[in-house]
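A common beginner's mistake is to predict each chain separately and then try to dock the pieces by hand. The better habit, illustrated here, is to supply every component at once so that their relative placement is modeled jointly.
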Amino acid sequence: MSTESTLTRELAALDDALAGRPVEPDLADLGELAIALRAYRPEPAEAFARSLDVRVQRGFPRAVRRGPRRPRLRGLALPGLAVTALVAAAVAVFVLPMVRGNVEPLSPEAKTPIALPTRATDGSGTGAGTGSSTGPRASAPSGSASTPVVPGPLPAPVSRAPSRGARRSVERSAQLTLAARPDAIDSAAAAILRVTDDVGGYVVSSTVTSGSGGEFELRVPEARLQDALSRLSRAAKVRERTQSSQDITATAVSARARLTDARTERRSLLRQLARAATPNATSSIRRRLRLVSGQIAAAKRDLQRVQARASTARVAVSLVAERSVGAGGGGGGSWTPADALHDAARVLEVTAGVLLIALSIALPAALLALLAWVATRRASQRRRERALDAV
Amino acid sequence: MTSTLTAPPAAPATAGALDFETLYRSSRDDVFAYVATMLRDASAAEDVTASAFERAYRKRGGYRPARGSQRAWLFGIARNAALDELRRRRRGAALAADPEDVHAAAPDDEAERTLRRAALRSGLAALSPRERELIALKFHAGLDNAELAAVLGVSVSNAGTLLHRAVQALRKAIDEH
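With all components supplied together, the output reads:
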């Protein structure tokens, strides 16, 4: 077994012999072996060497390919591309909505989700304009319907089609977010109250802070809802507008049926009372009459409440102060350098967001492609090395 | 064997780029010697040598000096081409007959040299393919230990150890001849 120093000496002797330097006497045979091995090396044939020289001179011209060119995707390239596409699709489907985070929950009254009401931001002024709307949607039999929010006049949400011979009771509501400059908050609040009064409605509650904003809970006649919304939208810049409707026919029918039943029972009791012969029977019938009268009163109240819900629409208005109103805004403000700075920052913000999303898709894809490439290279080299062991 | 070449039309002209013509001139016979020893088939060695130089020519833009010398890079390509050929044929060194010794002289002319060549031939034939590859890279292709390590993907000290073992195995095989 050679020691480390022996190994080093012998390797040095080999190099010395190959370089033509003298070799130590005790390693002379090793030097001779090195020289003999070099002298023994195979040499290329003249004809081959000449032909290779010519090919090199010509820059290894490619042979003309006949037929369609075969795609160069081989090995793991296709599976890698497929995995990359899947990852990109998964990111697009699951991550992007979370990033945007603009899915609005259903309104509390909407027991049956039919369609998610979408929020729309109006940056084009008072909102009394040209927004388009989706068509009417059919609602669930006992549920509610929501209309996507767009600025401008909207068609009333369409509830379930009334069944034959029955009038449907529908409760309608709307939410409106208006934006005005801080110095225009008070005038916008006054306009909201004026519109409510003009359409025959009333204010359930209101809170207004000068220069900051306010909240209004309004009731307007159902028949004037669209008119009211249209006029309210002109009071300030519309930021968001949502309308929804809920079918309360079942509740109304139930209250009406209970009232009818109670009245029928009262008439029956009155007839029994007229025929009563004993004091005990009379007393018993009167007790039952008092109970039925209470039931009639409760049913009447329920029915009136339901009818009120159907005949008036609830409108919730949020009035917010706007730091700056764009050039096209309905607030009437001019476009200042500060606005430009704000807009530029916003553009940069959005651009950065888009780049981030693109990066979140591209990075995993690139990583997968890199891993596939490395794995392919290693597998290929292992297969080559096995060729040495197989011979 | 030497020849005069003009630069290929598409040869890279940028500073620091691989000078393919110079590399070809200095390495053609070395690559052939290495591949022929690996394959032990002169005809196949010609094909593989040509293929290796063509691959190197096509990939010359991918050469990175930081990853080794030009010769080490070229012999890496030649090695892959030779291994591909071995895989394809699944015979390599297991030829039915050794290639003819083109250097063989007349017996009555240089008997001693002829005997020595015969001993080398049989000694090389007795080596494992990996040992024979080390001998070919070192003595036939003329690579130094650092280049040899780069081609095989091992450290320089490990390459020295492997080479020493191969030489010892060859000496033993020659002694037993």
